[in-house]
Write a structure and sequence with these properties.
Blueprint: H1 2-12, H2 18-33, E1 35-43, E2 50-56, H3 60-66, H4 74-81, E3 86-88, E4 110-117, E5 120-130, H5 138-181, H6 187-201, E6 206-213, E7 216-223, E8 235-237, H7 244-249, E9 253-255, H8 258-265, E10 277-285, E11 294-301, H9 312-368, H10 375-402, H11 411-421, H12 423-426, E12 431-435, H13 438-441, H14 447-465, E13 470-477, E14 480-487, H15 498-511, E15 514-520, E16 524-532
Parallel strand pairs: 12-13
Antiparallel strand pairs: 1-2, 1-5, 3-4, 4-5, 6-7, 6-11, 7-8, 9-10, 10-11, 13-14, 14-16, 15-16
Keywords: Kinase, Transferase, Two-component regulatory system
InterPro entries: GAF, GAF-like_dom_sf, HATPase_C_sf, HATPase_dom, Sensor_HK_TwoCompSys, Sig_transdc_His_kin_sub3_dim/P
GO molecular function: phosphorelay sensor kinase activity; protein dimerization activity
Length: about 525
């Protein structure tokens, strides 16, 4: 027996792969005492149930026919509650025996021994049916106990090796992400890479990056099975159990069973895919220069045993990488925008200092010779001067548009869209004139009122004016913004459209401004709203 025990101890320590080590331990235990069947149950972090069950003596087909692996109830649970060797001549006669599920091989003799690592119970060895129907002896119990002690050391070494390899891999992928961020990159691709590498290194089922927006979490990237991809872009409540604590406390958390936690909370009932997720690590993305924060989540398949718990500090490090990637991407966008705006400023200066001044000088020259020619030529010169004035106005509008930052709302563009919207209803396109720095000088609170006034005036023209021409002017000058809509229709009847005028007057009062309405039967109607920029 001593030699057999020595051979078994040597055999289980041939390499440091944890899965292979567990298989060798249960096989060596069966061979050591002549047991037909053997199993090694790994106890979960809660110390109450089995999260992994390695068998010996049954085929894969037999395991599939038996059904789900044991979770540690009945006699198996007794060893979890009382981790001391247990030897029985007839396990079916024990008061905590629950019997066997269908298709389970018949078993009677039983020997159970705990495996400890660093003073804690890692799991239990279960051996049944000694060769030729013999009983397990006290010598067998001592031998398996000794093997379990050696197995604890081997398992601990294998876990340390796995942890070291995992850390090495974490640092490798961190270097990969850092290298990516040294050049030009798409932040979406960076977040996908972070989710993918976090999932791979932690042996998880999915990796998820969520960002905090408007008191909700927005899923920005998911790496994992295809059925989870449909949730990219979805919003989640930030007060979900397990997430809220991390968001508020700035720490990370380990959730033993995500599916059960969500089920108990009664939330996310419309996300059935969560039922497949078990152990989960949630780490907060620290707030950055341009990022308000978020979460990095890696979740294992339900019931799987992973080393993800060992490297939780590395998950947090990956979360910091996500924030760094987002900040770096925004810095690149800001730098590109600065270059674009500087180029636009140069173009605007050239248009103003060169083109407009030359046009203005040309107009003055034409006006200077206006009286020196006959009437027909004077009319033609007058039209040319008007065209030059219109061109100068268009150039000034273009200059103001050049100073507008892409991605920001533009009052000038909103007015243009609104006027174009009424072209079909009117049967023609109104003539629009925008003068002055509409996008920079007009306060945000004033802009909706201006658009509403234009919409109200154009609607009145469509319904009542019977006009063939409409002009819309929006002018910023002398500390105020002037919005003027004029038509050549049938004019304004004081007995009608009082509700529309009342709305305009209320808008003007809201802005601290005034409304002017002029009308006669031959020249149509003009509505003017003035509002101070202050």
């Amino acid at each position: 027996m001593d030699k057999a025990l020595l051979d078994a101890v040597i055999g289980i320590g041939t390499d440091l792969d944890l899965s292979g080590t567990l298989d060798r331990i249960v096989t060596a235990a069966c061979e050591l005492v002549g047991a037909r069947y053997g199993a090694l149950g790994v106890v979960g972090p809660d110390g109450k149930r089995l999260v992994r069950f390695i068998t010996h003596g049954v085929t894969e087909e037999e395991v599939a026919a038996i059904g789900p692996t044991p979770e540690g109830h009945g006699l198996l649970g007794l060893l979890i509650e009382q981790p001391v060797p247990l030897r029985l001549e007839d396990l079916t006669a024990h008061p905590q025996s629950f019997g066997f599920p269908p298709n389970h091989p018949p078993m009677k003799r039983f020997l159970g021994v705990p495996i400890r690592t660093r003073g804690h119970v890692y799991g239990n060895l279960y051996l049944t049916e000694k060769t030729a129907g013999a009983h397990f002896t006290e010598e067998d119990e001592h031998a398996v106990t000794a093997l379990a002690a050696a197995a604890g050391v081997v398992i601990d070494n294998a876990r340390l090796y796995a942890d070291t390899e995992r850390r090495r891999r974490w640092h490798e992928v961190t270097a990969e992400i850092t290298q990516l961020m040294l050049g030009d990159f798409d932040p979406v691709d960076a977040l996908r890479l972070i989710a993918r590498r976090a999932r791979e290194v932690s042996d998880s089922r999915i990796g998820v990056v969520m960002l905090f927006h408007d008191d909700e979490l927005v899923i920005e990237a998911i790496d994992g099975p295809e059925e989870f991809q449909q949730y990219v872009g979805e919003r989640m409540p930030a007060d979900l159990p397990g997430l809220a604590d991390v968001l508020q406390g700035g720490r990370q958390a380990v959730v033993d069973d995500l599916a059960q936690l969500v089920k108990d909370s009664g939330r996310l009932v419309d996300v059935p895919e969560i039922e497949s997720l078990g152990r989960t690590i949630v780490a907060r993305l620290p707030a950055g220069t341009h990022v308000t924060g978020g979460l990095l989540l890696v979740a294992a398949e339900r019931g799987a045993v992973l080393g993800v718990t060992v490297g939780t500090d590395l998950v947090r490090m990956f979360a910091s990488q996500a924030t760094l990637a987002l900040d770096r991407a925004q810095a690149q966008r800001d730098q590109s925008m600065i270059a674009v705006l500087e180029d636009r400023d140069r173009i605007a200066r050239d248009l103003h200092d060169l083109v407009i001044q030359r046009l203005f000088a040309t107009g003055l020259q034409l006006q200077g010779i206006h009286r020196m020619v006959d009437v027909d030529v004077q009319q033609r010169i007058g039209r040319a001067v008007e065209d030059i004035d219109a061109t100068i106005r268009d150039l000034r509008a273009a200059i103001f548009a050049l100073h507008h930052q892409p991605g920001h709302r533009s009052l000038r563009a909103d007015v243009q869209s609104l006027v174009a919207e009424y072209a079909e209803s009117l049967g023609f396109r109104p003539r629009l004139t925008c003068e002055g720095p509409l996008d920079t000088a007009v306060p945000v609170t004033v802009r909706p009122q201006i658009l509403a006034a234009i919409r109200e005036s154009l609607s009145n023209v469509v319904r009542h004016a019977q006009a063939s021409e409409v002009t819309v002017d929006v002018i910023v000058a002398n500390g105020e913004v002037i919005t003027r809509v004029a038509d050549n229709g049938v004019g304004f009847d004081a007995g009608h459209r009082q509700s529309g005028l009342l709305n305009l007057r209320e808008r003007a009062e809201t802005l601290g401004g005034t409304v002017l309405v002029q009308s006669n039967q031959t020249h149509g109607t003009m509505v003017e709203l003035r509002a101070p920029l202050g």
